[in-house]
Amino acid sequence: MKKFVNKNFLLKTEASKKLFFERSQNLPIIDFHCHLSPDEILADKKWDNVAQVWLGGDHYKWRAMRSCGVDERFCTGDSSDREKFDKFAQTMPRLLRNPIYHWTHFEMARFFGIDDVLISPETADEVWERANAVLRGGLTARECMKRSKVETVCTTDDPSSDLCAHKKLKDENFEVKVLPTFRPDKSHAVEKPEAYAEYVGKLGEAAGAKIESFDDLISALKNRHDYFDSLGCRLSDNGLESVWFEPATPQELNKLFRRAANGETLLAEEIKKFKSAVLLECAAMDAEAGWTRQLHIGAIRDNNSAMYARLGPDTGFDSIGESNFAKPLSRHLNFLDSRGKLGKTILYNLHPKDNEMLATMLGNFQDASCAGKMQLGSGWWFLDQSCGIKAQLDALSQLSVLSNFVGMVTDSRSFLSYPRHEYFRRILCDTLGEEMERGILPDDFELVGNVAERVSYFNAKDYFKF
Asked: How many whole angstroms from its chain centre is CA 316?
């Protein structure tokens, strides 16, 4: 059988192949948004078997298994690792046209050298033995990063984190730069009053201050923001169901804070006012520090309340939301821009309908401070598959400037996810190469190859200046 993940996978034309192999394939990776554990990087995590590294914490694969009728005990339950692996192997033949089918075979090929068989119940024993032999030979967390030519990784960290692992990694001069990212979501999560007071206490403890007012909250966040900055942080990240712009007076905000911190349920409009204010304050901190701000917009999280109670968050029960946030986003960005507080910004949408809206919104706030100051983020979460990546590239190309794009991220908790950068680069080069051969782009390899290189790596290096 011809290899599935073969040399020319996704590359349909000779121009596409030339672009990928000569201009994109061998460039390093700057993974500026992920959810890897810095503690696991510090410990150079090892795995006993392929199921642990392949299925542990991977909610994409769990969702697929559940969709195929697999019992939860084989996803997140107490079944043995081998039983979980076998259930996933049984699921794989059903996943044709699902991106997991591509990703899984890429992972097997790039990290375990298994590119000559398809994963199925019939090949489960062989894959299990061959992959485990590679793990026994020294495939660790750090080795995954080094083999993938990772140059910089930005983890996602709560403001209350002590960043102990980051400090130790910095001190030992690990060859991959591991930097924190400031994620202040919980600081404005007043829609969950039962947890908010506890979080405020935790944040205050980290900042060495008692938080009794809205002003105290912002001061504590600024304290932690400065601390993150001292350890090399250069990005923030915000996970938002929507975007809000509801002005409120300082007196209102202090009242809302006290009520939320006392466990009181706020009205919907009050929640929007509070979130709006915190987001604006954090955006100003980012701009003053010269950071890049990321907004991940559009996920509805923890939809299945029974499974949330049983398993907690990030276990595969989130989905694409639908909200019309163009006007509040415009007002939010305009407010910051008019006050000189709008820094570098990356906007990610989860609903595909928002590609064009965001691509055009960017143009309203570009300026001479930086080429591509306002960025349309890569296809994210449910959109980081071939169709979603292509749609993002098309919207960005037609309505903004592709050659300024800072490129792909893994957005992953898995050390095996780096082939997603290769996946993206192949789609990028295939798109450019195909249009060269159709005459839509000039038959100028140097001109088009420069775009492929910049989007694959050099734009991110120049933009973030890690």
From this structure: 15
Sign of the Cα pseudo-torsion (298, 190, 235, 409, in order): negative
Residue 404 near residue 459 (C-beta atoms within 8 A): yes
**So where are the chain's domains?**
49-139, 151-464
* Class of the CATH domain delimited by 49-139: mainly alpha
Write the pLDDT tens digit of every residue in 374-389: 999 999 999 999 999 9
Q: For the chain, how many residues are written?
A: 466
Order of strands, sheet of 29-31, starting from the edge strand that comes earlier in the sequence? 29-31, 150-154, 177-179
Angstrom distance (rounded) from CA 238 to CA 231: 20
Rounded-to-5 percentages of helix, strand, coil across the chain: 55, 10, 40
Q: Tokens 């699921």 sit at which residue?
A: 91
Question: What is the 8-class DSSP label of residue 354?
Answer: G
Give the CB-side neighbour count of residue 263, counting CA atoms within 13 A: 3
**49-139 and 151-464: same fold?**
no
Joined together, the tokens standing for residue 391 give 């749609």
Which CATH superfamily hosts domain 151-464?
Answer: Metal-dependent hydrolases (3.20.20.140)
The Cα 426–Cα 12 span in angstroms is 10
Q: Buried b / exposed e across 55-66, counting CB within 10 Å, b at 16+?
A: bebbbbbbbbbb
CA dihedral defined by 311, 316, 321, 327, rounded to 10 degrees?
80
Residue 253 tokens read as: 């905000």
Q: What is the pLDDT of residue 366?
A: 98
Single-letter code of the amino acid located at 223: N
Q: What pTM was computed for the model?
A: 0.97
124's enclosing H/E stretch is: helix 124-136
Q: What is the DSSP letter of 379?
A: P
Euclidean distance between CA atoms 348 and 26, whole angstroms? 26
**Sign of the C-alpha dihedral computed for residues 299, 301, 303 and 307 taken in this order:** positive
Distance CA 46, CA 43 (A): 8
Beta strands 319-320 and 235-240, pairing class? unpaired
Sign of CA dihedral 304, 310, 312, 317: negative
Three-state SS sequence of 26-76: CCCEEECCCCCCHHHHHCCCCCCCHHHHHHCCCHHHHHHHHHCCCCHHHCC
**End-to-end Cα, the chain, rounded Å:** 44
User: d(Cα 279, Cα 181) in Å, to the nearest integer?
Assistant: 16
**Residue 57, pLDDT score:** 86
Q: How open is the CA angle 459-464-355, to the nearest 5 degrees? A: 65
Overall average pLDDT of the 11-20 stretch: 98
Q: State residue 445's pLDDT score.
A: 97
Q: How many CB atoms lie within 10 A of CB 138?
A: 8
- The C-alpha R_g of the chain, in whole angstroms, comes to 23
pLDDT band (50, 70, 90) for residue 2: confident
